[in-house]
Write a structure and sequence with these properties.
The structure is a homotetramer of 138-residue chains.
Chain A lengths: L2 E2 L3 H8 L2 H6 L2 E6 L2 E7 L13 H19 L6 E10 L7 E11 L3 E9 L5 E11 L4
Antiparallel strand pairs in A: 1-2, 2-3, 3-5, 4-7, 5-6, 6-7
Chain lengths: 138, 138, 138, 138
Amino acid sequence: MAAKRIEGKFQELVEGIPLNQLLGIRVTKRHEDGVTLTGTMRDDLRNALGTLHGGVTATIADAAIGIAIMSHHQPIRLAATVEMKINYFIPIVEGRFTARAKLLRVGGSLVVGTAEVRDAKKQLAAFATATYKYLRPA
Amino acid sequence: MAAKRIEGKFQELVEGIPLNQLLGIRVTKRHEDGVTLTGTMRDDLRNALGTLHGGVTATIADAAIGIAIMSHHQPIRLAATVEMKINYFIPIVEGRFTARAKLLRVGGSLVVGTAEVRDAKKQLAAFATATYKYLRPA
Amino acid sequence: MAAKRIEGKFQELVEGIPLNQLLGIRVTKRHEDGVTLTGTMRDDLRNALGTLHGGVTATIADAAIGIAIMSHHQPIRLAATVEMKINYFIPIVEGRFTARAKLLRVGGSLVVGTAEVRDAKKQLAAFATATYKYLRPA
Amino acid sequence: MAAKRIEGKFQELVEGIPLNQLLGIRVTKRHEDGVTLTGTMRDDLRNALGTLHGGVTATIADAAIGIAIMSHHQPIRLAATVEMKINYFIPIVEGRFTARAKLLRVGGSLVVGTAEVRDAKKQLAAFATATYKYLRPA
């Protein structure tokens, strides 16, 4: 799958999203069919069990799908999450984690994507599906 | 529905969870059948559209269900999220937002709950269902 | 909760849906905020474990939410399922089972509802959430 | 992807499931990492819009994942659906439709799979994720 380093302008846009900044989420790759976001474990991202809080995993998955949608269109189209479903497989303990998003279906008003979240050892830690709604007709 | 101010000790436990602290999520009520968590809009919790990021909504919903499970048992039982599904209805723009969790089904190894997320005007902003797995047999 | 026996005409419409006929699904109550559908266990609805197949549970839940949407509007508005999520709690073994649907959110283009599926003893057997999309603007 | 015609014995087992028989669902391929089930449009499987009822799509997707789990183990292990999520993309109008299931995560007590449902033209019509629970420890 072809992947290119993300352009400076797009990167800025994504990292300008306040919650991404707070959680340290960045775009690291842009693929033909989606994007990869990356985060890094920090103590303030932990849950009661001491591992990465599922809310952060859900955030990076949702963000990855949203950004895959934005970057699918020229010019960028904004969309809002209608619903998201995520399954958690193994806890993320430390190091870098990534969310690789792909679009499953681009419709006229709705668009659906998936995201695979992997831990520092590339193990599949979570899998999400999200439906977005375009904010304006094309 | 009976509700009592949350006891100091339980409060501490919940607010001791690092991500809750980072996002400013607190327990504000304990009900017969669940709990209510509360957060407050801040600029660093916004998404690309300027409203509350869905990741924060997902986090407070997931946290509320997890804490409803913990507080359902004496002594507290830890559980991990197996999967979560959330539907978003209206954007949260400012002020306080709450997540009211209830348990739908308490099984031997799995437990399922729902959370209603409401904005400062008490409008239903999101609805989540989550499945948790007990970390140890009872 | 006010409930009235379903009118003949509406009943006919619902039972005219081929799959409902095949599976024996009928509307048994119309509530202020939704509908109740009823089915009856038959041997040809069983799964590999000998209990009601989850596909039938999913069908009655989806149908109940769809019919709650149709009956919410005057005249009836058609809508198609965008996505559905269902949690299964206990197996349905025999007798009548019901799906009670409610609408959570009626938006301009999307509408979201829930359904509680109960067995013959009124125990909660499954819980579903579904998003529908209106086929035509109002 | 390697695929072999399904063996007679396994075929029998699957087609012996009563609801599969009622709906005409058969196993048509067994892959290294899952199975493909096939159904055929019939007038009694239609919804109010005249297309394949989403309940049938949900049934074939759920069945495909369940059978992928059964066929993953030697000897076969039974499992029950904990929850399922399905997104619908395009209506299925006629002819054969297939559900191709894969396992995403095989855990000690839970197992998660996905299914792609395609219409007669191989277009992606729906996508499902399901969590199953093993009925007995391995």
